[in-house]
Structure formats: structure tokens, C-alpha cells
Specification:
Length: about 325
């Protein structure tokens, strides 16, 4: 089986943008690939945080992933800091990565421009990301469009290391290829291009039906629909129509098209239909999350087993790397 690696920040409970944009895809991919899914807590300590909060967010993320259908029997789910080889390989990669490559990264330039004091970790973040992927010799990485540049750096790192330490024509590290996630970016409820917890425009994956409705009801729609009798255009309604396309069956999406353009449905009617489809998909996830929260030992056991499986692979890679570099 080809191998994939994907990581997610321990931001606590997932929101539906994370779920649709990444995790739902992971659940499908675990059937087709040897999959390594990692809660990347080392990446999360670059910004400000409190230790207790990080611990809680890491556990909540693992709970959300398991509840969403990530199955430890089909993949390797683990927390990054439980596998110390990630930072060991990142250091090695730091020694073969030109500074200019890192300074050119768009994400670094954007974040650094907003900070008074820029930490070295922010610059070296993509090197750790390369180590995350290459430690498992993953040849494929499911990514959103905005992460493709980071993956390019992982390919440069693999190429540089192979050129120096692998015999010509027999590269050790694969150059990982992106696999673009099928769901495009989920628009925030306020119409902002991105659904993001920091923008406060999300619906949490584990929110109740009532909580979802409280957020969905005021969500922005096609501005030309001032009254129920105004004809609308679903393409001008990326929030609600986008969620219909993600949660509702094709027949309902077709109905939305007709009833919006013909002004047969008001936006509240349309959102109520959406709510039912969202709730049908998310209720089993919510129920499973409640069960896991009531039995935290199940989450611990899954993460312990995942770290052990990941470490076995990581240690084999590091043996090869050190041998070839004269470190063993
Ligand atoms: Fe959006 Fe539905 Fe209203 Fe059309 S009817 S503008 S798709 S909420």
C-alpha cells in the first residue's frame, strides 16, 4: 500500500471546516493507504499557549478524530511529541536546508510581518513538517491548496539529503506528492473566505442541533434576497450553498438551485433543510465523542498504541539516516 502522512494542529474540538476539509478525507484515505495521522503538538508550541490548555486541546482533538471515524485498526493515529524522532530528524534536516529556502516561504513572511519578535521555530516550522512526513517515508500527503508550498520544501529537503547521503539513482527519501483534498475551502458563516476558530465564524463538530441552528440562522446568504419573494442565486451564497454541497444529497442540492432561483424557498427554509442533513451526519459523531469523553482510557489506549506503531517505523528510518550520515 502507498503511504500517506497528514498532521493536524491540536486546536481542541474540530469545527466543520476542519472536518470537511481534512478529516472526512482522512477517513476515506485510511481504506486506500497505509496512513499516519498525527496531532502535531510540537508545531502548536510556536505560538503562545498554556501547558494545561495544550494538554486539553491535544486530547480533545484526538477524541474528535476518533469520533469522526479515524480507526486505529486501519491507520496509525498518534501525538507528535510521543515520537521524539520527529525533532531528531528535523535537526538533521536543518543542517542541509538553505536559509533562503525558509525565508522565501509565504506563510513565514506573512506571520513574521505581524510579530514584534520572530522566533526561530517559526522559520524552521517547514523543516519539522518535512521531518514529520519523511520520517515515515510517505510518498503522498493530503493537503489543501494553501499548503502546497510547504510540501514543495519537503521535496527540496528530500532531494538535498538524497543528493548528499544516498547513492546516485537510489534515493532513500521519496519526494512526497500532494493529494489535493476534494472539498474546497469551507467559507466561514460570516462570509469570510475561511472558516477559522480565531475568526469566530465556525460551527463546532460536536455542537448540538440547537447550537448549530443558532449559528446557521444568521449566516450570510445571497444579498439580493432581501425578501422571500426575491429570486436568488446559490452561487452568490457560498456559506449555505457550500454547506449543502458538503452535507446534503445531490437531489437536495438540485432542489436548492431551483427553489432559490425561483424564490419558492426563503433562506430560513433552505437553512432548515440544511440543518437536518448536517444533523443526520453529525449526530453519530457527537454520540461517539460523548462515549469517548466518558471513557478517556479508550483515547489514551488508542494514542499509546499509535505512538508505539509510529515509533517502530520512525526508529527504522533514523537507523538508516544515522548510518548513512556517519552518526552511527
Ligand atoms: Fe442561499 Fe438558500 Fe437563501 Fe438561496 S435560498 S440565498 S441558497 S440560503
Amino acid at each position: 500500500m502507498p503511504r500517506i502522512f497528514s498532521g493536524i494542529q491540536p486546536s481542541g474540538e474540530l469545527h466543520i471546516g476542519n472536518y470537511l476539509g481534512a478529516v472526512k478525507n482522512w477517513v476515506a484515505l485510511q481504506e486506500q493507504y497505509e496512513s499516519f495521522y498525527c496531532v502535531v503538538d510540537y508545531h502548536a508550541i510556536i505560538g503562545s499557549y498554556t501547558p494545561d490548555d495544550l494538554r486539553r486541546r491535544t486530547r480533545d482533538m484526538a477524541t474528535s478524530l476518533l469520533a469522526s471515524g479515524i480507526d486505529p485498526a486501519k491507520c496509525t493515529l498518534f501525538v507528535q511529541s510521543r515520537v521524539p524522532e520527529h525533532t531528531e530528524l528535523a535537526w538533521i534536516f536543518n543542517t542541509i536546508t538553505p536559509l533562503g529556502e525558509l525565508e522565501r516561504q509565504v506563510a513565514f513572511k506573512e506571520k513574521a510581518s505581524r510579530q514584534e519578535q520572530v522566533m526561530a521555530g517559526l522559520l524552521n516550522y517547514p523543516v519539522l513538517q518535512a521531518a514529520d512526513i519523511l520520517l515515515y517515508l510517505a510518498d503522498t500527503v493530503p493537503v489543501g491548496e494553501d499548503q502546497v508550498q510547504h510540501l514543495e520544501l519537503s521535496r527540496v529537503v528530500a532531494r538535498n539529503w538524497n543528493a548528499r547521503f544516498a547513492p546516485e539513482g537510489a534515493p532513500y527519501f521519496p519526494e512526497p506528492q500532494p493529494k489535493l483534498t476534494p472539498t474546497r475551502r469551507i467559507v466561514g458563516l460570516d462570509g469570510n473566505a475561511k472558516m477559522s476558530k480565531s475568526l469566530g465564524n465556525t460551527i463546532g463538530l460536536l455542537e448540538s442541533k440547537d447550537e448549530m441552528w443558532a449559528k446557521l440562522r444568521p449566516a450570510v446568504t445571497d444579498p439580493s434576497r432581501m425578501r422571500k419573494t426575491d429570486a436568488g442565486n446559490p452561487e452568490q451564497c457560498p456559506v449555505v450553498f457550500g454547506l449543502h454541497k458538503a452535507f446534503s444529497p445531490a437531489s437536495t442540492v438540485a432542489e436548492v438551485e431551483v427553489n432559490c432561483r425561483g424564490a419558492q424557498w426563503g433562506c430560513v427554509d433552505c437553512k432548515k433543510v440544511l440543518l437536518e442533513h448536517m444533523d443526520a451526519e453529525l449526530t453519530p459523531i457527537r454520540t461517539r465523542a460523548q462515549e469517548l469523553t466518558a471513557q478517556p482510557s479508550l483515547v489514551d489506549a488508542a494514542l499509546d498504541a499509535g505512538a508505539e506503531k509510529a515509533r517502530a517505523v520512525a526508529q527504522r528510518t533514523m537507523e538508516q539516516v544515522k548510518e548513512r550520515m556517519g552518526l552511527a
